[in-house]
Design brief:
The structure is a single chain. By secondary structure, the protein is an alpha/beta fold. The chain folds into two domains: 52-234 and 273-298, 3-Layer(aba) Sandwich (Rossmann fold), CATH 3.40.50; 240-270, no CATH class. Helices cover 45% and strands 17% of the residues. The chain has helices at residues 3-18, 61-72, 84-98, 112-126, 153-181, 200-220, 240-251, 255-263, 274-284, and strands at 20-24, 34-37, 52-56, 76-81, 102-106, 131-134, 184-189, 225-232, 235-236, 272-273, 296-299.
Length: 309
C-alpha cells in the first residue's frame, strides 16, 4: 500500500474506533461481533487547548460566561474590566473551576493608554494572544430608553466611545500579535438593537460594531484572523432578577408575569442564558469556525419577523 493511502486508512480506522461505544461478542452477539456506535461525529474538539484569550467586560454577565467557557475548553484567559475587586473574585472562581490560568487585569477601554498597557501585560504574562472577545460596554436595556430631547452629546459619545471605539482600540492593539502568529479570532459582542428601532443610541452603536467587524474581517482575514459579531437579545444575567422585580413593582404584578411577557419577544419563549451565548462565542473563537468571517450571528432565540439573508 502506498504511504499516503496507508496514512489515510489508519486515520479512518482511528476515527471509526473513536466512534465505537461498546463491543458485543460471544453468545450475546449470536452472529459474531457487534460494534455499537455513538451518534455520528461524537464530541467536537474545539482545538482551544493552550490558546490565550482576552475577554473585556469579563467580571460578570456575558463576558464572564464567555471567559468561563473558553477556560473550560482549555484556554488561558485574561479578564478585563474596570473594577479590580470584582475581577479578582471572578478570576479566582474561574481558575478554580477550569484549572486554567485566569488573569485579572483592571483597565478602562475608553482610553488608548490603558488598553495598550493591558495588552502588553497580558502578552507578557500569558506569552501571547490569539483570541479577543470584546464585551465591555455601557449597560443597556436596564432603564428607560432616552427620548430624542434627552440625548446629550456626552450620553451619546460616552456610549459609542466605550462600545465602538473601545472595541477598535482592543482590536488595534492585539492585531500585531495575531498577525505575527498567523492566526487569531476577534469576536465583538453587539446586540439585536442593530436590527430594530426603539433605542436610538443602542441601534447606532450596535450597527457601528457590525460595520467595524466586517471592515476588520476583510483587512485581517488574509493574515489568518477571523472577525465576527454576535448579537445577543434577551439574556439572563446576574442583573435580570432585579430588572424583572423593578418592572413588576412598577406594574403592580408578580415578577413571573413580567418574565412571561418579556419572553414573548423571541420565538422560543424564554430567556437565553449568558452561558448559551457563551457556547456560540466559544465556537467562533475556535479554529473550527474558519468558514465564518465578517458575519453577524444572532443569539436571541429568534427575535423579530424580518428575514436576514
Amino acid at each position: 500500500m502506498l504511504p499516503g493511502l496507508a496514512r489515510a486508512a489508519a486515520e479512518n480506522w482511528r476515527r471509526l474506533c473513536a466512534g465505537v461505544r461498546r463491543i458485543v461478542s460471544g453468545p450475546q452477539a449470536r452472529m459474531g461481533t457487534i460494534f455499537e456506535f455513538a451518534p455520528w461525529g461524537g464530541s467536537m474538539d474545539l482545538e482551544l487547548q493552550g490558546k490565550r484569550a482576552i475577554v473585556t467586560g469579563g467580571s460578570r454577565g456575558i463576558g464572564k460566561a464567555v471567559a468561563r467557557q473558553l477556560a473550560v475548553e482549555g484556554a488561558d484567559v485574561a479578564l478585563i474590566a474596570r473594577g479590580a475587586e470584582a475581577l479578582t473574585d471572578a478570576a479566582a472562581e474561574l481558575a478554580a473551576e477550569s484549572g486554567r490560568r485566569v488573569l485579572p487585569v483592571a483597565a478602562d477601554t475608553a482610553f488608548d493608554g490603558p488598553v495598550r498597557e493591558m495588552v502588553e501585560r497580558v502578552v507578557a504574562d500569558l506569552g501571547g494572544i490569539e483570541i479577543l472577545v470584546n464585551c465591555a460596554a455601557m449597560p443597556g436595556g436596564q432603564g428607560p430608553v432616552p427620548a430624542l430631547e434627552d440625548i446629550t452629546d456626552q450620553l451619546f459619545w460616552d456610549d459609542v466611545n466605550v462600545k465602538v471605539m473601545g472595541y477598535l482600540r482592543c482590536a488595534r492593539e492585539v492585531a500585531p500579535y495575531m498577525r505575527a502568529g498567523g492566526w487569531g479570532r476577534i469576536i465583538n459582542i453587539s446586540g439585536l438593537a442593530a436590527r430594530q428601532s426603539g433605542s436610538t443610541i443602542g441601534s447606532i452603536r450596535n450597527v457601528a460594531v457590525a460595520a467595524l467587524t466586517k471592515n476588520l474581517a476583510d483587512e485581517l482575514g488574509p493574515s489568518g484572523i477571523n472577525v465576527t459579531v454576535v448579537h445577543p437579545g434577551l439574556t439572563r444575567t446576574e442583573k435580570t432578577a432585579g430588572i424583572v422585580a423593578a418592572r413588576a413593582a412598577a406594574a403592580g404584578v408578580a415578577p413571573d408575569k413580567i418574565e412571561e411577557q418579556m419572553a414573548t419577544l423571541n420565538s422560543i419563549r424564554r430567556f437565553i442564558s449568558a452561558e448559551e451565548v457563551a457556547y456560540v462565542v466559544t465556537f467562533l473563537a475556535s479554529p473550527k469556525s474558519v468558514a465564518i468571517n465578517g458575519d453577524a450571528i444572532a443569539v436571541g432565540g429568534g427575535v423579530g419577523r424580518a428575514i436576514h439573508y
